[in-house]
């Protein structure tokens, strides 16, 4: 059975003690064979959400103040002011809440490192950017189209 280098993910014959490609000694390869997930923190989306939240928040506060001046509008105005204060925090937090969880692994055809976002995982597959072969995703693993 072949083993995969923990450094470059190259597939090596079982009788090699070092990686043929990068010369790394054979070690604990259990982590490189298992599917791995990483979470991309969308800093840009978080900042955009905070910025838009601040913009909407200012308008909500202004409308709330105007409604409070009308007397009966205080019933609607005070909640609008409170919501306007919370909007920048909620907008920034929304960007962090919907972080993109990516699946990392190897292409079963060419053994290159590939990753798939949530949309590709739901769609069930992708084309490898290196060899252009169709790779399916099943149970957190990349598999060949022929293996289905």
Your description of this structure?
By secondary structure, this protein is an alpha+beta fold. The chain has 3 domains: 1-34, SH3 type barrels, CATH 2.30.30; 43-97; 100-148, no CATH class. 41% of the residues lie in helices and 22% in strands. It has 4 helices and 8 strands, in the order ββαβααββαβββ. The chain has helices at 30-33, 43-69, 74-97, 118-123; strands at residues 3-4, 11-12, 36-40, 100-106, 113-116, 125-127, 134-138, 141-144. The strands form 3 sheets. It has a 3-stranded antiparallel beta sheet. Strands 6-7-8 form a 3-stranded antiparallel beta sheet. A two-stranded antiparallel ribbon has the order 1-2. Strand 6 and strand 7 (134-138) form a beta hairpin. Mean pLDDT is 74; it is low at 29-34.
Keywords:
148 residues; alpha+beta; SH3 type barrels; 3 domains; three-stranded antiparallel sheet; 8 strands
Number of helices: 4
Distance between the termini: 21 Å
Low-confidence stretches: 29-34
The ordered H/E elements are: EEHEHHEEHEEE
Give the tally of structural domains: 3
**Averaged pLDDT:** 74
Quaternary = single chain
Brief rundown of the structure:
The chain has helices spanning about 30-35, 45-70, 75-95, 120-125; strands spanning about 5, 10, 35-40, 100-105, 115, 125, 135-140, 140-145. The protein is of the alpha+beta class. Mean pLDDT is about 75; it is low at about 30-35.
């Amino acid at each position: 059975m072949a083993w995969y280098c923990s450094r470059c993910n190259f597939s090596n014959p079982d009788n090699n003690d070092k990686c043929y490609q990068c010369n790394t000694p054979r070690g604990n390869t259990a982590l490189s064979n298992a599917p791995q997930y990483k979470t991309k923190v969308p800093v840009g989306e978080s900042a955009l959400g905070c910025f838009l939240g601040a913009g909407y928040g200012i308008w909500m506060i202004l409308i709330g103040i105007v409604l409070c001046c009308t007397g009966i509008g205080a019933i609607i105005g005070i909640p609008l002011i409170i919501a306007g204060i919370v909007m920048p925090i909620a907008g920034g937090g929304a960007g962090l809440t919907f972080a993109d969880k990516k699946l990392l692994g190897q292409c079963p055809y060419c053994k290159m490192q590939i990753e798939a976002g949530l949309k590709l995982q739901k769609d069930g597959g992708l084309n490898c950017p290196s060899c252009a072969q169709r790779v399916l995703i099943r149970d957190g693993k990349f598999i060949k189209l022929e293996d289905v």
